[in-house]
Amino acid sequence: MPKLSIITINYNNVEGLKKTIESVVNQTSQDFEYLVIDGGSTDESVEIIKRYADKINYWISEADNGIYQAMNKGIVKATGDYCQFLNSGDYLMAPDVTAKMLDNMPDCSILYGNKIREINGKMQVERSFAGRQVTLFDMYVSTFFHAPAYIKKTLFDTYGLYDESLKIVSDWKFYLITIGLNNEKVVYRDIDLVWFDPNGISSTNKALDKQERKVVLEQVLPPNIRLDYEEFARDGQIMRRLKKSKWAWFMILNLYRLFFRVDKYL
């Protein structure tokens, strides 16, 4: 049995798919299998898949009801201990990153590395939570990205597959339940693992993201916890806005000077 199942889902993204597949089939590790789930693409995606078919353990191209149904198809067919969802457009940063992640793997439910992406023309390394203890509140206000995470396959047996009624946040719902509410063990490795394509649906449809998150929170969290966290999140947003505002800091400084007379120490 392989340690890892890398699952790529794709729909009409032939250029992104080519980058993704090439980054996977060129890995030095032999401890993974590769599955490609295509949603019945009408571009040249299937031709690309066939080109690399000898290095793909399983692939299918048929219509589906969205990204989470496609991901669930991959989970059902996967035989690895862990699943990594590397969707078309995302790619592994170097040929040895899978080997590094799988080397002396710790006993954990989710192992994750770094995500790399471009922001304002600059490459940025994102170290989610940087190895600290992940809390329910972390999952309330944030999430893990799919691509740099290795998810133990047995978690899907315990908590179920992805909720296919959701279009964007089913992965976040899964993390909220497994990590936030059930304290599944998460381990971080400081390895630059994947390049993230910012053109996915979750990055471009913020309104739907917000709407679905609200529905999930009402389903999953007890009302008292949800109301408290809404207050915490609101306070956090206020502080972030104040930190970004030079005028706000000017006013705060002058209030301190007025009430505490700190100006005599400056």
From TrEMBL:
Q: Tell me which residues make up the Glycosyltransferase 2-like domain.
A: 5-107
Query: What would be an example GO MF term here?
Result: hexosyltransferase activity
Q: What is this protein called?
A: Glycosyltransferase
- Alphabetized PANTHER family for the sequence: COLANIC ACID BIOSYNTHESIS GLYCOSYL TRANSFERASE WCAE-RELATED, GLYCOSYLTRANSFERASE
What phylogenetic lineage does the species belong to? Answer: Bacteria, Pseudomonadati, Bacteroidota, Cytophagia, Cytophagales
Q: Which InterPro entries match?
A: Glyco_trans_2-like (IPR001173), Nucleotide-diphossugar_trans (IPR029044)
UniProt entry keywords in alphabetical sequence: Transferase
Q: What Gene3D superfamilies does the record tag this protein with?
A: Spore Coat Polysaccharide Biosynthesis Protein SpsA, Chain A
Keyword rRNA-binding on this protein? no
